[in-house]
Design a protein that fits this description.
GO terms for molecular function: nucleotide binding; oxidoreductase activity. This protein has about 375 residues and is α/β, with parallel strands linked by helices. The chain is about 30% helix and about 25% strand. It has two domains: about 140 residues, 3-Layer(aba) Sandwich (Rossmann fold), CATH 3.40.50; about 170 residues, Dihydrodipicolinate Reductase, domain 2 (2-Layer Sandwich), CATH 3.30.360.10. Strand 4, helix 4 and strand 5 form a beta-alpha-beta unit. The chain starts with 10 loop residues before the first strand and ends in a 26-residue tail after the last strand.
């Protein structure tokens, strides 16, 4: 049940999950005037305490403490993917809006339940990635919508490197069922294409495991062997309801690192889009118009990108402003569900060897307003 008396001023925020990703969220959320981080929680309460004290957050505890806190309106769910839906559902049951790290859940059923529960309760759900709210990707979108490459026709994306066991002290969850590069990295690229092209129509994919076991390579557990459950190399071809097509490579099996490659080709040019795992980056454009140009080395033009600095947490801020002002967050739960449906369909295509038609769709994703500033006090917090 939602609060009966509408609130004003900054939105109270509580984090559930104090792992590696919480640092960047806390760096940013504690700098945004429109939100106030009131508590950090974790199953490991001392870890939550350390993060809270590091970032100047006044309270810490377990997840139940966040859910019971009367001034927390928005829960930022930074738990591992296997429990995203469970934690989000608990937050909704406690009357809280939810921002969840990706993916929304690891099954369609659990993710749909989160959204249905939120709708019945009149609560908002947002889902990472929010990197696409950054000035790099927003600039690329505006270039495409201006017609800089004509009519968009196709995309290629590539993400490949040796894998997160290279640096993560506890990487097992990234190789478990419902993870792998498809579910860990795929949301950035697949969501980017949904922003640009709209709803997916079909997917066809292959996937393999480069090794059946891996070893932890960093931290106190270095040398520990664990079983690989998810495909660690996935190649997927997708079509969109608007007629565009895309090919995507996601790999934890490549000795060569190649990350952040997103190429959009249109009838009149090609655009290189910034890494969708980052908030900034270069936007580059080419217009081959003659045979000589086509046969020579490609000449790229830089598209100016605003000099703005913000990072993870921007999507939670956008959601918080919607709590006060109405509307839906740009990185909405429904968009997150559609991307989850794409990933689940890719898994089904890998298993069956068949093309899978998507059952879900997503509304066109709006651009951020020109001049959107996460550091602006729009809710009277400084009054």
């Amino acid at each position: 049940m939602t609060n009966q008396t509408p609130r004003t001023g900054r939105v109270g925020v509580g984090l559930i999950g104090a792992g590696m990703i919480s640092d960047t969220y806390l760096d940013n959320l504690t700098s945004f005037p429109d939100v106030e981080v009131l508590m950090v929680s974790d199953r490991d309460v001392p870890r939550a305490q350390a993060q809270a004290q590091k970032h100047g957050v006044p309270a810490w505890g377990g997840a139940d403490d966040v859910l019971a806190h009367p001034d927390i309106e928005l829960v930022v769910n930074l738990t591992i993917p296997a429990v995203h839906a469970q934690v989000s559902s608990a937050a909704i049951a406690a009357g809280k809006h939810v921002w969840s790290e990706k993916p929304l859940g690891i099954t369609r059923e659990s993710a749909r339940q989160v959204l249905d529960d939120a709708a019945r309760a009149g609560l908002l759900v947002g889902v990472a990635p929010d990197t696409l709210l950054g000035p790099g990707f927003q600039t690329a979108r505006r270039a495409i919508e201006r017609g800089d490459i004509g009519v968009p026709l196709s995309a290629q994306t590539v993400f490949q490197y040796p894998g997160p066991d290279l640096f993560h002290p506890n990487p097992e969850f990234l190789f478990a069922a419902g993870a792998g590069p498809l579910f860990d990295i795929g949301p950035y690229y697949l969501t980017a294409l949904a922003h640009l092209f709209g709803s997916y129509a079909t997917v066809a994919a292959v996937g393999v495991k480069g090794r059946e076991t891996r070893r932890v390579q960093a931290g106190d557990r270095a040398g520990t062997e664990f079983v690989v459950e998810a495909p660690t190399l996935v190649q997927a071809i997708a079509s969109f309801t608007g007629g565009q097509v895309a090919q995507n490579l996601f790999s934890f099996d490549s000795p060569m690192a190649r990350m952040g490659y997103v190429e959009i080709t249109g009838t009149e040019g090609t655009l290189l889009v910034p890494d969708p795992n980052l908030f900034g980056g270069a936007v580059r454009l080419t217009h081959p118009v003659t045979l000589a140009t086509v046969q020579s080395e490609t000449e790229w033009l830089d598209v100016p990108v605003p000099d703005e600095t913000y990072g993870r947490g921007a999507g939670a801020l956008d959601l918080a402003r919607c709590i006060r002002g109405g509307g839906e967050p740009i990185a909405s739960g429904e968009l997150g569900y559609h991307v989850l449906d794409v990933m689940a369909s890719i898994e089904e295509s890998i298993a069956s060897g068949q093309t899978v038609r998507l059952a879900s769709s997503t509304a066109p994703v709006p651009l951020l307003p020109e001049g959107w500033d996460p550091h602006e006090d729009t809710l009277g917090a400084g009054a």
